[in-house]
Amino acid sequence: MNSKLSEFLSTVAKKVDDYIFSNIKGQPEELYEASLHIIRSGGKRVRPAILMASGLIFTNNEEDLIPFAASVELIHTFTLIHDDIMDKDEYRRGVKTVHTIWGEPIAITAGDLLFAKAFEIITNDDVRKRIDASRLAWAAHELSKATATVAEGQALDMSFEKRKWVTLNEYLRMVYMKTGALLEASAKIGGIIAGASPENVRLLGEYASKIGIAFQIRDDYLGLYGREEVIGKAVFNDIRRGKKTFFVSLAYQIGDDELKALLDKLLGNQSAPREELEKLAMKMESAGIKKEAEDYMEKLMGEAIEAISSLKNTLNNEYIEILKELAIFIVKREK
Amino acid sequence: MNSKLSEFLSTVAKKVDDYIFSNIKGQPEELYEASLHIIRSGGKRVRPAILMASGLIFTNNEEDLIPFAASVELIHTFTLIHDDIMDKDEYRRGVKTVHTIWGEPIAITAGDLLFAKAFEIITNDDVRKRIDASRLAWAAHELSKATATVAEGQALDMSFEKRKWVTLNEYLRMVYMKTGALLEASAKIGGIIAGASPENVRLLGEYASKIGIAFQIRDDYLGLYGREEVIGKAVFNDIRRGKKTFFVSLAYQIGDDELKALLDKLLGNQSAPREELEKLAMKMESAGIKKEAEDYMEKLMGEAIEAISSLKNTLNNEYIEILKELAIFIVKREK
Hints:
335 residues, mainly alpha, two-stranded antiparallel ribbon, 1% strand
């Protein structure tokens, strides 16, 4: 990772975490412990970073952006807590999931609490004094709209589980909803609070939704071609769990009968043998699907970079550079 | 019920339902069906009614209040959907609960969607054009703060299940959090959007939080002394399920050894015989606990009525009368 980007990410993470841990407090203690557990366990704070960088392109007033940066992380975390319940996942970021430790009722409530706190911190007395009220209301709208879209995306993803295959377009739409929409809102909110023009806000959103989709495709990619010792989790997990990834969607769409038959045999098969899975990954590569994924990510990265290169009346262009580096990192990352 | 109050409740219910069903639409259809299921199954729309009446005391502009009235009902419904999952309840309002029909993952997501939509509809372009932005942000803050309080109250209530008994003060605090806070926010938001002064907004909130607590105590009361054919559910259910009600808290606090021993035997005993439960209800009455509950509800009702009687610069006093009738109804209702 580019050192300026890496430095920016750590700086934002520190400030946002400080804000979260000083502001998200209360009783019952168990509920707050459960709510903050996944935030404490790590994470890169990508959404806060995108929000902050997007805002800092247009303002020097970093303080005003922090509560909003915290709020997108709270929304993201609430969706992780609820998703883990639905997927019955036991671990996330190397620690036990919230429902595994505290049980489902507390986990559901912990997610609900973070959701409420996300809106509470961006509308509290202090923020309402400092931020132009119509920009604040606009930001709250982007955040709530994106959160509704994430819920729709989650339901769409679940509906995919019942289907044998989904088209690449259906897959891409779901990924936009589950991942792209909240990144898009993060970038837009940064711009909105910093006083950016509607057109600049739109461009920031376009940038972030594209890299959001690219991020998920790269995840799918590493799930087939990543190195286990680098990514820190088992390769081929997605196939074993029957996930309809970029690769699976495209394989059913353009693969030959042999590839489809192999997929039929392995997809959702928890005990699929490693050598067969490796054969599947190779067959996907020879069918040109790996290349398609690489090309598609390149295309998204290019469009994202083009979008932020079109911003007008910018103040601090070094943050445009950081967002460009972030787009490159997302597509090239090995974990 | 007073006929003006009853007419007002039906009018509000119709308008709010129309608004909800025309505005909460989308894909996947299954998710929206699940989200709207409990709203379709009935309910009195008490929170929207309190919001509308509180606002109409200060404005004739009913249209502006409707999205906010819908939003408090969406928040209320989201908490019902999630609570039913946590309590493993199979029925609500005479229909199967959301998770019973669609499964837990869709039910969790359906609740999350309504939560997001509640904030989306009060911040959308149309509302942002019509409502003063700082009042809108203030209203969003009251709504998010109350929703966080409901989550805290839910966790507190769950923590009570693990304890043998709780004090009356602990019980009252939990009831304020689970029921009072959202009613309080509903009344305040009505006033805020209608342009009421901060002091009037505070008084409206005081009114509604008091009747919220009284509402729950009346529920507890009907769970012991109600008539099954009127309330439409089994009396003594609360005792069988081990709920720490107003009566249980006070019995452990002021009851004699015999009453406490009887409670120890029956509380949480799913197969407790009816005659013993009736004996418990009588013993509570002779210990003065029924009278304490009646006095406490009267006190809350009096304070609620006093609060709205202190409103200044009101425009339409007939809505003060409606809120007074509502306070009386809540304390006197037989179901």
